[in-house]
Amino acid sequence: MPFVAGLELTRSRVAIVTEGARGIGRYAALRLAEDGFDVVIAYSHDRSAAEDIRAAIEERAGRALTVETDVADETAVVLLFQQAEEAFGAVDVVVNCAEIVMCGSVCDMAPEEFAQMHRTNVLGAFVVGRNAARRVRRGGALINLASYVSETSRSAYGAYAAGKAAVNALTVFLTGELRERNVTVNAVASAPVVADPASPEQPGDLARIAEAIAFLAGPGHWVNGQVLRVDH
């Protein structure tokens, strides 16, 4: 029986992409659909954009589902996995692209802003990760969105970088916890990307990041516990 990346080619493969209606998540959802995944597009607020991505996938003979989800809400994330399983049978890959980027020095950022950002970026990664650990099919993958600003001292990104450092740590520790089930856990790190349709460089940047995600979800299943850096 043929295999690709630990996943059988003879069965349907299913991917959940959080914040799959915009930015990196949008490109990741479309790219995984190209590889034959049924895609669950989790979105936080922009239903119209999510439905556009679903329609684009279905126009290419793919299958997709949209689910409104707050990644930091345990009940909402449990429901996300339940709906994915009801629609497509199981979940093989989870790509967590949900994040908030706020710029500003640590000294000047309000505690409320810090908490808001970290609720999505850190608590969200924890909630999505723990549910993926319980629900992803054997031989699957969890892919987080990291950032290499966590390795720098760029003053405008201090609070954001702290959260991404936490995501890196969660990625490494989940690797050990899921190794026995042959579920890989990795992260893709880039500079912060704000999806700006007016920028001619954005589509290429986002496509390269999505390509790295597709690699880890498929042929790169032998890679585990890594933060894969993607330069623009």
UniProtKB/TrEMBL annotation:
This protein's UniProt keywords: Oxidoreductase
- GO terms of molecular function: oxidoreductase activity, acting on CH-OH group of donors
Residues of the signal sequence?
none
InterPro entries for this protein? NAD(P)-bd_dom_sf, SDR_fam
- Top-level taxonomic group: Bacteria
**Gene3D superfamilies assigned to the protein according to its UniProt record, in alphabetical order:** NAD(P)-binding Rossmann-like Domain
Q: Which family does it belong to?
A: Belongs to the short-chain dehydrogenases/reductases (SDR) family.
Protein name, UniProt field:
3-ketoacyl-ACP reductase
